[in-house]
């Protein structure tokens, strides 16, 4: 499943890093790193991360394609 994080929205709150550390990383203070291609066994964690993100910066699946139009 593809995801996109809108890094212009992301405020580095790190909720996603706590919920899905295999997908999201915050090595510095500001720049979030993530795997755009999420393995199936991480999908539920990523959904929880998207729901927990205070600024709704994480787009999953269909939302990624809709955003690209
Ligand atoms: S939870 Fe949202 S705002 Fe926080 S680091 Fe993740 S994507 Fe960025």
Describe the protein in words.
- The chain contains three helices and four strands, in the order βαββαβα.
- 32% of the residues lie in helices and 14% in strands.
- The protein has a single domain, classed as Alpha-Beta Plaits (2-Layer Sandwich).
- The strands form two sheets. Strands 1-4 form a two-stranded antiparallel sheet. A two-stranded antiparallel ribbon has the order 2-3.
- It starts with a strand and ends with a helix.
- The protein has helices at residues 15-19, 43-52, 62-68, and strands at residues 3-5, 24-25, 33-34, 58-60.
- The protein is globular and about 30 Å long.
- By secondary structure, it is of the alpha+beta class.
- Bound molecules: iron/sulfur cluster (SF4).
- Iron/sulfur cluster binds at residues 5, 10-16, 24, 32, 53-55, 57-58.
- Ferredoxins are iron-sulfur proteins that transfer electrons in a wide variety of metabolic reactions.
- InterPro entries: 3Fe4S_ferredoxin, Fe-S_cluster_ET.
- Its cofactor is [3Fe-4S] cluster.
Helix/strand layout:
Layout: E1 3-5, H1 15-19, E2 24-25, E3 33-34, H2 43-52, E4 58-60, H3 62-68
Antiparallel strand pairs: 1-4, 2-3
Q: In a few lines, what is going on in this structure?
A:
By secondary structure, the chain is of the alpha+beta class.
* Helical stretch tally: 3
Mean pLDDT: 92
Under the CATH scheme, the architecture is: 2-Layer Sandwich
Percent of residues in beta strands? 5-15%
The biggest beta sheet, please? 2 strands, antiparallel
Distance between the termini: 18 Å
Domain unit count: 1
Number of DSSP strand runs? 4
C-alpha Rg (nearest Å): 11 Å
What order do the strands of the largest sheet run in, or round the barrel if closed?
1-4
> Low-confidence spans: pLDDT under 50, at least 5 residues?
none
Structural class: alpha+beta
Which ligands, by name, code or SMILES, are bound? iron/sulfur cluster
CATH fold label: Alpha-Beta Plaits
Listing every helix as H and every strand as E from the N terminus to the C terminus, the arrangement reads EHEEHEH
CATH top level is: Alpha Beta
What share of the residues lie within helices? 25-40%
Shape: globular
